[in-house]
Design goal:
The structure is a single chain. This protein has 340 residues and is α+β, with helices and mostly antiparallel strands. It folds into two domains: 3-96, SH3 type barrels (Roll); 104-321, Alpha-Beta Complex (Fumarylacetoacetate hydrolase, domain 2), CATH 3.90.850.10. The chain contains nine helices and 21 strands. The strands form four sheets. Strands 1, 2, 3, 4, 5, 6, 7, 8, 11, 13, 15 and 19 form a twelve-stranded mixed beta sheet that branches. The protein has a five-stranded mixed beta sheet with strand order 9-21-20-16-17, with no helix packed on it. The longest helix has 12 residues, at 111-122. The termini are far apart.
Length: 340
């Protein structure tokens, strides 16, 4: 198949999101709706009909496009026949999150990161539940950022962290899957940066309701989605983290507690996977700053690179963003019980 992404285009009616095929080797992207429209015009379609059909097959939503199933995949090849007349320089486009996920879930599956985090940061053995079933949480889809989009620095943290993960992008609906058929429902891979406010994370996890503001301020998704058939084997892919151009770590997709197929299958138990859903793999070993004792600062630029996919570049805002309100602690009637 190919690599697919989403870009923003300015029009008289405001910003429009366009679906593109990405050809890094040719330093260009192809506006698929534009290419399909041109193809239809060459076949004597009217301008109105050509635009309507192209927009239906290649909307700005990658999730909607994937949901069309084989028709979408077949029409990509047809549209690329007009690629030369619908191409844009890759360095000149404005990226958005590679996929507009209906649901974001993020797992915890790499033994390297688990060991580093609990041994060196927490100072205790990992929670035994990590080895009983694949753990994951759900994140906000409203804070998805694409390649080169500026990431806010929340004013409530002093420990902003990156996390290098794979994002498994779901390609077709599925429920109650098993590891033997789960990857048949994965359309492709993207890079998933699970940004974390580490000082807020420690407090929130103790509440017992899962991550909140420690996660739901930014998720990096991009730079594009590479279809699974182009990737081949997921295990063994290499990754690298750079901050301000300096290599922070090299890592590798290896030492799964639960494999990608097991994680996807578990998520689907008594729940529906939807086209475009993103399931984060969990952080690769040494794929986060906290494992190295380093955090991001305002104005930093973090780059996450994964073999076969590309590089997701995320500039951090130059100043922390002030929050307009923060809750005041309430009286705890159980304080004495807790102290005892």
């Amino acid at each position: 198949m190919t690599k697919l992404g989403r870009i923003a285009v300015s029009t008289p009616d405001g910003e429009q999101i366009r679906l593109v095929a990405v050809e890094p080797e040719n330093s260009r992207v192809i506006d698929l709706a534009q290419a399909h429209r041109l193809m239809q015009l060459r076949r004597s379609a009217t301008e109105e009909s050509a635009a309507r059909i192209a927009g239906a097959i290649f909307p700005g939503s990658l999730s909607s496009a994937i949901g069309a199933g084989p028709v979408f995949r077949e029409q990509i090849d047809a549209a690329l026949a007009a690629a030369d007349d619908a191409s844009l320089a890759i360095d000149e486009v404005v990226w958005r999150a590679a996929v507009d996920a209906p649901v974001i879930r993020d797992g915890l599956t790499f033994e390297g990161h688990i060991t580093n985090f609990f041994r060196d940061v927490v100072g205790s053995p990992p929670n035994p539940g990590i080895y009983v079933r694949p753990g994951y949480f759900k994140g906000s889809t409203g804070v998805s950022f694409g390649n080169n989009e500026v990431i806010p620095y929340p004013g409530y943290t002093e420990q902003l962290d990156y996390e290098l993960e794979l994002g498994y992008v779901i390609g077709k609906p599925g429920r109650n899957l098993n590891p033997d058929n789960a990857l048949e429902h994965v359309f492709g891979l993207t890079i998933f940066n699970d940004f974390s406010a580490r000082d807020a994370q420690g407090f929130e996890l103790g509440v017992g309701m899962g991550p909140q503001k420690c996660k739901d301020f930014a998720y990096g998704i991009g730079p594009w989605v590479t279809t699974l058939d182009e990737i081949g084997s997921i295990e063994g892919l290499t990754g690298q983290v750079r901050v301000n151009g300096e290599v922070q770590s090299n890592t590798r997709v290896e030492n799964f507690v639960y494999s990608p197929a097991e994680l996807v299958a578990f998520v689907s138990i008594m729940d529906w996977l939807q086209p475009g859903d993103v399931i984060g793999s969990g952080t690769m070993g040494f794929g986060s700053g906290i494992e190295l004792g380093r955090f991001l600062q305002p104005g930093d630029v973090v780059e996450l690179e994964v073999e076969g996919i590309g590089t997701l570049r995320s500039p951090i805002a130059p100043e922390p963003e002030k929050v307009p309100w923060w809750p005041t602690p309430k009286h705890n009637p159980h304080a004495e019980e807790t102290a005892a």
